[in-house]
Amino acid sequence: MRIDKAEVIVTSPDRNFVTLKLTTDDGLTGLGDATLNGRELAVVAYLEEHVVPLLLGRDAHRIEDTWQFLYRSAYWRRGPVTMAAIAAVDTALWDIKGKATGMPVYQLLGGASREGLLAYGHASGKELPELFDSIRSYQEQGYQAIRVQTGVPGLKSIYGIASNATYEANSGVRYDYEPAQRGDLPSLEDWDTRSYLRHLPTVFEAVRSEFGPEVPLLHDGHHRMSPIQAARLGKSLEPFDLFWLEDCTPAENQEALRLVRQHTTTPLAIGEIFNSVWDYQQIIREQLIDYVRSAVTHTGGISHLKKVLDYAAQYQIKSGMHGPTDISPVGMAAQMHLSLAIHNFGILEYMKHGEKTNEVFRQSFTWTDGMLHPGNEPGLGVELDADAAGRYPYQRAYLPFNRLADGTVHDW
């Protein structure tokens, strides 16, 4: 079974998505997500110029060989663009193999290790009453675990607070937070770490008082703290029993996690901007984290992320895959299949896509009582409606950036 056709499809229903569609000589198709938020066309160019010509005529069943060929033959290895492109190919080939065998992808990965997948949603609010309403809304939708982000006194904006929240006209259901803003320039946000460190423990104290000790609560620091600041925050949050503190320090400085680990027992999660097993070697081996945050879409596909997680399992480190709205339904389905199969699953981030996105991508996965399941259709269980995709052309969009009060650019 040979790859006969490879198409790169760019569409922007609720936001930009890049999808690779492979077609075999016997008519089977496979989809792979290659979306890199804010840099989508870089991956499109890489795929069209450097990957698609290499795929035509290749044996679609040789998934590992194709992965190694695309990775090693390029010489310039790793990096977000390369690994997103390889991820799309890898995921599409798993989709094809599932359809060829008549089985869902999770069966090809060893079968289900659990009945469903615990997922968390993103509650936010500039003030506590708004935050409490958001938490209740997610609980009413069935979410058992909640990420908590809130405004900081004196700041105009903060990560995780939607300035562009929209609502479905008929149901009134809020679309989840989408930070990428369409336009020619990125938007500016402000930041003050000291105010944040003083305020956040009071927020979790109030949330625990209102919602009790049993709700799994998460928080994302989004790489904004120095090592000693992150250590202070982790220590101050210990009384509130967080499920995890995510991305507390810049991901490039992995040594920082050792200092944080020495000062707090709050569980740590990191990895959404990592893209290979080599990014994780030290922090997994030294057990500096508790959860791997990488997404299938950004980490070389199902094949490579499974290697990362198999390595992590030796150290009792669990998965917590990145799953906001910049991961398309194709990417989310791939993550669900992998999460269902691995032994060391922890939790899955799940932000519901908007109505237009669901029009473009038909999905078989289900959401029941706060648990996700990828469904049992052959392959990934997602199909792309080309006509619908064509109605939503690409629109340039950027993630925001931060400046401190004195004008210094800071990590967003």
UniProtKB/TrEMBL annotation:
Biological source species: Bogoriella caseilytica
Start and end residues of each Mandelate racemase/muconate lactonizing enzyme C-terminal domain: 128-267
GO BP: any one term: amino acid catabolic process
SMART domains hit by this protein: MR_MLE (SM00922)
Protein name per the record: D-mannonate dehydratase
GO molecular function: magnesium ion binding; mannonate dehydratase activity
Top-level taxonomic group: Bacteria
NCBIfam families: ManoateDhtManD, PRK15072.1
InterPro entries hit by this protein: D-mannonate_dehydratase-like (IPR034589), DgoD-like (IPR034593), Enolase-like_C_sf (IPR036849), Enolase-like_N (IPR029017), Enolase_C-like (IPR029065), Mandel_Rmase/mucon_lact_enz_CS (IPR018110), Mandelate_racemase_C (IPR013342), Mandelate_racemase_N_dom (IPR013341)
